[in-house]
Write a structure and sequence with these properties.
Elements: H1 5-33, H2 38-64, H3 72-88, H4 91-116, H5 121-143, H6 152-172
Helix pairs in contact: 1-2, 1-3, 1-4, 1-6, 2-5, 3-4, 4-5, 4-6
The structure holds fe (ii) ion (2 copies).
Residues 19, 22, 50, 53, 130, 133-134 line the site of one fe (ii) ion.
């Protein structure tokens, strides 16, 4: 079954929402952590990539006439809050947040790539490129001690669940 234009518009909408959410999470973390620690520098580097991802999806949405999710104001606040809350739990919890989210995003982008096949090379290539960045973010977070965060399984599970819900909502609303 080929993926029609409406379905691809919905993919772009959810992906832009996710990249936007990512910029807000990192903004929340950096607001708490400042700029000077080793972890903060790693986060700032990932945040720069998320900002770029977001801009690319913004441009593609404008070119294709796709509206953004109506939930943008919610992701603005919820993303920042999640970032700030995890950073307040400590740098390893901040990294656990990234590891959890990127695990879900990897799965999500992988599913989209499977569904797209070769119907939309521009979108597929963009998703594949960003997916590689997200996997790097996940590895960076794990190397920085994500799994040693307090209550890691619980924290990680809760964030992954929230991420899956956010994806479902942004697809349609
Ligand atoms: Fe991203
Ligand atoms: Fe990322």
């Amino acid at each position: 079954m080929s993926v029609d234009e409406a379905r691809r518009a919905s993919m772009l909408r959810v992906d832009q929402a996710g990249e936007y959410g990512a910029t807000r999470i990192y903004a929340g973390q950096l607001a708490v952590m400042g700029q000077s620690s080793d972890e903060a520098r790693k986060i700032a580097r990932m945040a720069d990539q998320e900002a770029r991802h977001r801009l690319v999806f913004d441009r593609m949405m404008a070119e294709r006439g796709v509206r953004p999710t109506a939930l943008q104001p919610l992701w603005e606040v919820a993303g920042f809050a999640l970032g700030a809350a995890t950073a307040l739990m400590g740098p390893k919890a901040a990294m656990a947040c990234t590891a959890a989210i990127e695990t879900e995003i990897d799965r999500h982008y992988g599913q989209q790539l499977d569904q797209l096949g070769d119907v939309d090379p521009e979108l597929s290539e963009t998703i594949a490129e960003f997916r590689a960045d997200e996997l790097e973010h996940r590895d960076t977070a794990i190397k920085a001690g994500a799994e040693q965060a307090p209550a890691y399984p619980l924290l990680s599970g809760a964030i992954r669940l929230g991420c899956r819900i956010a994806i479902k909502l942004s697809r349609h609303i």
